[in-house]
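assembly run, all chains below
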Amino acid sequence: MNKKDIMLMITMLLIAGVCYLISNLTRNENGNQVKVSVDGKIYGTYPLYEDREIDIKTDKGNNVIVICDGSVSVKNADCKDKYCVKQGHVSKKNESIICLPHKLVVEITGKNEADKAIDSIAK
Amino acid sequence: MSKDITKIGIFIALAMAFGYLEVLIPFSFGIPGVKLGVANIVVVTGLFLLKPGEVFTVSILRIMMMGFLFGNGISILYSLAGGLLSFVVMLILKKTKVFSITGISVAGGVFHNLGQIMAAALILHNRILFYYLPVLIIAGVITGSLIGLLSDRVVKTLRLQDFDVL
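ok done. output:
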């Protein structure tokens, strides 16, 4: 290991730090919606502050999502690696739980009027 | 020619043995999806002992074979994206002769994770994955430096012994 290697490692860590800061600045605000999408298509949007259990059945497999006390988690899944269950609870805006084998993404969004406007233009 | 094929075969077999070891005993860091990737010792070492084309063959064939044995179609795609990107980056860095084997391995580790996240973002049609970037860069630096230090030892030992197969 020489000096330049250490410089490279420090640079990489700095980049990670900057990425973390940028993503943290945008996720400071609390989200209030849970967006579930499968294979890039929106499966459903649910309010974050209403407790419920969502049973997601697709041709790829099943996931059980639980919304409780303003946080979301995947309670059960029949995928091989179960990373989605291990990822635990998320509650802040832009946080997400991902199940790669089932192409499932659970993300927390803010109900933002500006976002909606952009969406409707894009359509 | 047959010597080259034997060499590539030995490297692939070694990489698969390491890969299998990690299937049996996962070296996990407590972050879902992050692992050490011991098999990459073979690829990093290979960069310094084999020709670039040979390392490329080793890297691709190892991923395909491990994928068919223990993974599925999608996991092969992720691994290929990571493996290809990290291979290209490591090869370029090696050609510039700026960094030692550890630095090259660190870059390889980071870009391996970057390649996988890009593949996942493409497959899932979702940019939210990039929020995992900081964690994955740090994980790449840690695993990359460990793999680099180990590979450094391997390359030095093999060169000291005048390992004539290579």
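Residues 113-123 of chain A have pLDDT under 50 and may be disordered.

The beta strands of chain A are 33-38, 41-47, 52-58, 61-68, 71-77, 96-99, 104-109.

not gonna interpret more than that til we talk
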